[in-house]
Design brief:
The protein is 44% helix and 17% strand. It starts with 17 loop residues before the first helix and ends with a helix.
Amino acid sequence: MFCIELGDFPYQRPRPGQAEFVRFVSSRFGVGDVLVFSAPTGFGKTISILYSLKILLDKGVFDKVLYVVRTRNEIDPVIREARLLGLRFAVLYSARRMCPVVRNSSISVEGFWFICNALTIQGKCPYRSRVDILPQPVVASAISSCRDHVCIAKTLANNLGVCPYFSSINLFDYAQLFVATYPYIFKERIWNSIFGDKDVSRTVLVIDEAHNLLNIGGVAGESISINSVRDAVKEAESLSVDSDTIEFLKKLSSLAIESGVRGYKHIDKSIIGLDKTLVDKLEATVFNSMTRLLRDSDADVEKVEKLVASLSKVANFADVAIQEDYELFLARGLGEDVLLSAMPISYEFLRKTFERFAGIALMSATPPSNEFLRNVVRVSKNVIRVDVEDFGAKNFLKENTTAVIFTGATTSYRLRGENVYRTYANIVETVYRFSGKGVIMAVYPSYEVMKSILRYVTNVDNMVSEGSEPLSEIVENVKRFDKVVLNVVAGGRLSEGIEIVVDGESLIKTVIVVGVPYPQPDDYTNAIANEIEKSGGESIDYFREQATIRILQAVGRAVRSDKDYALVILADRRYLGNSITPRLGLRIRFVTKSLEDIAKVVKMFYEQL
């Protein structure tokens, strides 16, 4: 193994594999490449890629780095490393949260933009008018003094008196590093409105947590509840909106999904009369109503927004829904409400995004495979795959897990029934009975399967199931117990986003993967599969990739560092001989169809802990 000296590396000693990674990227990555960067939690992905790209910026290979993260809280680690490297940087996240006028209000994201535009036109926003006055170096200097994204917004507003959002956008050409959240890159209408006139032909795009790109509906889609549409009807009637618009809203509000329908049900846009003319009329209605209500200089923006809050949501949703390659789908939410979603059915928008930039860097502990990028996304750039294990870094997801395949059941659709659900319930109860302290995370392929199995789970004292509560609330609830079963859905916000850690150690000790978490077959997944086949790809790559990453993300909740050890039970006979199993990279230690054997393995694992 070779090693290099990193004279200006901002930390005293690079972690294993970091120096080798920097040497590889700074010498091999260039214009026309897609770098797929696989590294486990704790490797230091952010500083490694930024340090490498700073070298390439200094060489003139690229002019700029556009670094996108899933949530605004994930901006802060990038800020920390950018400050250490001395990079000129700017950040962009939710305009409503950056805005000093409404930051602490309950105004909706959708309603905010109508309020913002109305206040700007009327000259009632003192922050917006100063944006073009201050020199870029002054704004950049103020940003560089901040340690987190909240500080940046407050500093620009309070110390410089400028709009944080539009001041940050103005820094795009000046900054070496521009950090933004996913919507600014992956939602085409937002990209066009913010960056559409920018030249990014010499910019490298870094995508953090790149496994999220598989879920194109979550990355680029929009949803609205039917209850919100019904509220919009009331708002429209109170504002004396024209009859055509009200008729459209009533038609939208009457949409329903029949009992027994699994997942998403397709809705034909033409049936509800959705078109560009209607969208323009909706947006004009909301804007004109807000402008009229705000003419009174003493008007409270929060009260004004509430009068058209639901109409704003419908207008925003409709603007997304009319886009090409987007279709409408109905599904049941976690409660009694029904959700209407507008989602892309093709990865074409992702391919266009990749082609737009000089280079792409995809980072994740579980990044998309080369086959998926080539056969599904149809990437034409040169794909370079880097697994930091090859550079001497340890992958604790593999080294610190004991994986077992249970072959006594399957969640295959044609075999589901009471006996299958009872068997899985017995697995959960057996693991709980013979385990020690900690969290047992049971991961189900769908809410339907989870509910069906949990009906038969009776011998578990402490159990928490995924719901609509905030993540922080669920974590605190789980921590109340010394031993608890946490029930989550594969690909959901808990199985891919939760951390239950005390003193740097994960409390999740066992992960039970119930079935193989392929995407649920419904109108949406069928539409995606059809589009993949039509473009010359193979839909099996889509289903296989989704299942693989969902499993690894769930296991990754348990193994957060070298301190963590986890037992993984792959509970489905299809893992034997399945092409997914080798892709997981987990070391299979045992295969059994006996619950008694599972009990022995669980007991032995916790004794070793």
